[in-house]
Structures are given as structure tokens and as C-alpha cells.
Amino acid sequence: MKLSLRKINKLTDAEVADKLKLLRWPSTNGEPVCPDCACDAVYVIATRSQYRCKRCGHTFSIISGTVFHSSKLSLRSILQLGLLWANAAKGKSALELRRDIGLNHKSSFVLLHKLREALLTTADDTPMDGDVEIDGMHVGGHIRHANRAEDRPEQNEAPTPVRCVLALCQRNPEHLGGSMRTRVQVVETETAETAFDFITRNVVQGTTIYSDGHAGYDRIGMWYDLRRVNHRRAYHGDNGENINLCENYFSRFRRLQFGQVHKITPKYLAEYANEIAYRADTRRWTNEHITHDILARALQTKRTETFRRYWHSGVVPETVQEDIPDDVQLGNVG
Ligand SMILES: [Zn+2]
Description:
Bound molecules: zinc ion
Structural class: alpha/beta
Number of helices: 10
Strand order of the largest sheet: 6-5-4-7-8
CATH superfamily: Ribonuclease H-like superfamily/Ribonuclease H
Distance between the termini: 37 Å
């Protein structure tokens, strides 16, 4: 089924609430469950659209304790937000959402990051198997070119990348095109250690793995059936050796990076990379399916301290292991 803003606007307030209740409490078919003691016997406070637990007395609403906790958005606006997010196949910028829903920039920025946080928290971590591709993409580094040609170096300097996004893409056995599952990790550099660690934590031993000729993947052959394609000779080997799904994922990421958000700081790179992995994997879903899924994840993810602190200090910890200066901007150079 396809969803549209027109369809959402035609819903009554009760229908909107019922939709969100079903997404938040699927196991009780939408009947409210106390977030404090998990009791499903509640009083309804109809005038305030709230519920009170019969056991512990806790008062709560549909969004209490979720990533939307204390949000000023109406339930209808939350549903609209889900649809706008689902429709933005290349990602959504905070500025665009701000204009769509009429928020200030900070609220819009935080809201989008809370959705990314929910995606990370609820990401599938079951081991991958079958046919899996791996590759790395460098992100960041920027060289400001001198104004005068005589001040510029004779050869174009290559920017020093500041991060690498490693991607694992599991091929669809039915060859429907595109990957079945995409998993990503942000590392400082693409080395034998980082690649080996990423693969062994995510892929079942013995799986067929496709990679390019990067020396960082040499060690993988010990535990996996490694098949490589040498890009200096061809992009596609004679026996199906290629990493086209990874290339496809990276090109999606670049469209978000250059076409939507323009600047990504290292501390948010993992969230953005994971968002694009989700968008790649759900590319064949209807927009209603994606809307419901992203809102269910957001409504079933407990609010975290990360972006509550942002309101007061503007400081958010980075979701990667390595130290890198926070002021480096990743948006300008591929
Ligand atoms: Zn309770």
C-alpha cells in the first residue's frame, strides 16, 4: 500500500493514535503497556490522551519513554514525519525537514538524529552468510586550493581521508538485484586488522566472500572462501567475482553526502552510513511499509541520554572507536 500526506490528513485523531499505538505495542495488538512495570492494565485519561497504570500509578502517553519523549509534535505530525522520511530515498536534511514540518533547525536536526539512533539501536546483528561482498570507502579530507594558479601545487594533491566506511553486502540468492542485507562500520583506516575484525564478527565462517585486491583482505582467506577481483584488470571477474553491491551502497552514500546533508562530521558518520544501509535494504518496500517500520523502531527504542544532553551542551559522543579531531568536516571531498 502506498501512503501519502493526503491520506494521513484524512485520518481522524483516533485513527492516527490507533496506528501509532499498534506500532508502539505490537505484542498486545496496540493495547497500552506501562513502560515502568510492563503491566497492561491501565486507566485511560481521555482528556489528555494519556494512560495511568493500575499497578504502579505511572502516567504515560504513546510517546513516553521513546525517542519522541517530550516532543512537541502532535501524533499526526509524527506520522507525517515518518512518511516524509520514508519518501526521501537519498536521505533527508534537517533544513528540508524544518521547512516541511515547521520546526526550528535544532529540533529538526535532533529529530533526524534520534531516528538514526533508533535505526542503529534496532539494527539486525544476526550473522551474514551465503555470498557476501566487502569493500571500504574513504570519507573526508579537504584541501582548500590556493586562489592563484601559481600558488597551487603542480600535481593535484590527494586529500587525506579521515575515516573509512567498511561495508558488507549480502547477495540475494534469488538474484533479484541489489543486496539483501547491508552492514557497515566506521574505522580509521582499511587495514588487515579492521577488515578481519569486522568480517569475523558479522559473517559465518566458511561463507564465500568477494573483495577487491586490497592487501587488507589477504588474511580473510584463512577462514573464508575468498574470491577476488583485480580492479586494475576488470570490474567483473570471469566467475562472477565483483563487488558491485558495495559500489552501489557507496554511491547511495555519496548522494546523501553531497546531495542532501553536504557536511558530515566524524562523530555522526556511523549514523549516516547505517541510515543509508537501511535505505538500500528497504529500497523495494512501499513507503507505507517503511513509514511504519521506522516509526515502530523509534517508538520501541528507549530514549537515550545522547541527544537529551545535546540540548544543553551541544556535545554528542562519537560512535566510533578511534580518536579524530571533532572539527574535521567530511562533506567536501570524496
Ligand atoms: Zn506500571
